[in-house]
Amino acid sequence: MQDPLIGITPLYLIAMAFLLTALGLVIKNTKFFKVFALVNTVIAFMVSVYIIRKVVDDGIQLYFFGGYPAPLGIAYEVDELNALLGLLATSIMLLSGIYSAWYMKHSRAYLYYTLFLTLLAGSLGCLYTGDYFNFFVMLEVLSLSSYALVAYFRDSPKSIEAAIRFAFVGIVSSSFYLLSAFIAYASFGTLAMADIALKARNTNAVTQFSGGIVGNIVMTSAMMVALATWTWTFKAAVFPNYFWLPDAVPEAPTPISAVFVGVIDLIGVYGTIRMFYTLFGWGSVASQLRPYIFTILQILGVVSVFIGAFLLLIQEDVKRFIAYSTISHLGLIFMALSLDVAEGVSASLLHTISNSFAESLLFYSVGVAIVSVGRSINVLGALRRRRVALAGIVIAILNLIGVPPLLGFWSKYLIFKAFLDTGRIYGIAILVLATGISAIGYFKILFNAFRPVEGFKEDARLRNTVLADIAIVLCIAALITIGALYMLSPGIREFISRVGYKVVCEYKAYYEFLSLGS
């Protein structure tokens, strides 16, 4: 089923970003840029809602650029996996857009919103594309805008330093993925992900406009996997590539800090799932390597869980605290998705949704205190006068700990069940232990949030926090509503389970259109 919206939307957002830059030369009204960016973010969100409904009702959606079928042209292909994550990404971007309208007061607002729309375009492009090289292109669109946003406060030496470090290691990481794309084309004679997935399982397969297999396909597949995995672990901030997140997140504007933990990290999760279950999943030439690969991912996940859990305990900067909290939860996500079972993938997806909303909610809430008293955890008591933000911190912390009936409880329950069903008792022990360790830090946040402080800073934004409150309330509502729906609605539980099952077991559907002559 073809739908042009999945391919046109990222290009539309890039066009709007360029238009905003041009308009910034003649229009100086900051409110115009806020409204312009927010309207286009709402459009992207509505498109993502439309797409997931279309995928659920009609199956996989395709779009061939220029009318040229894959693998001759670039194909965008959306199944339930990337439709779900696309909706999550646009939801967080919309919340950050609303929050930005309150937070941003800088005279260079048009530059901020240009980068904001570009980052949104890159995120959707990465999630919706079905072309291995186009993924790299959209990854660069996403990365370049994120580097610039870390350095947005260019008067701050720390922001510039963090952006340079982030950009340097990010460019190296992206280069590894580009090299894996070269290897893919040289070995498989194609860059269409569906075509690679087909030929990885049937080396004698012949598709229209595509070359044949060349050389030792097992060796080249292993090289592709190794190079791409480095990129995915970097984007997901998983050990050993976690170090950029605690440096970049504190220096970025607070709404962008929420985007880093809520959107950019999920690109790494998505890339890992797509690589190891769609391209090189069951029955592929890399099947004999999968046990070793997943063992490595398990180890990386475990190390990330404890690095994040222990290091968040010693943080005094609340933004760095949230960054390490994110690293710990992403470690759990990688442990779940590397179980090589549908239940593990479903659990990782639900925990990705839970963590994206919860960590973003923490940023939105503490951002109000940061404007007032700075980033120290010891002065979070400034939020006692901001009941909405204080409620946001409480709900976010309870969700991260996993208190029922919030979404975080159900996602951790699914991870627990996946470990139990696969006989990985050590995983259950790690889940419980890491939750206990992290809870010490989370209760420290709660204690300081309710402790009275003095020395408030005057800031015009604090006179009217309606937009910030709206973003916080919507994020709270998302965590409570999705958690309640998962508990009460068999349809929601079945959908999450079905997404994991289709990713792991029904991988043929992803490349089935190739056998139909594209």
TrEMBL record:
Chief site of localization: membrane
Compartment(s) where it occurs, according to its Swiss-Prot or TrEMBL record: Cell membrane
Any GO BP annotation: ATP synthesis coupled electron transport
UniProt membrane topology term: Multi-pass membrane protein
One Pfam family named in its UniProt record: Proton_antipo_M
MF (Gene Ontology): NADH dehydrogenase (ubiquinone) activity
Keyword terms: Cell membrane, Membrane, Transmembrane, Transmembrane helix
Identification of the protein by name: NADH:quinone oxidoreductase/Mrp antiporter transmembrane domain-containing protein
GO CC terms, sorted: plasma membrane
Transmembrane segments: 6-26, 33-52, 81-103, 110-130, 136-154, 166-193, 213-234, 255-280, 292-314, 321-341, 361-381, 388-410, 425-445, 466-488
Residue span, NADH:quinone oxidoreductase/Mrp antiporter transmembrane domain: 131-438
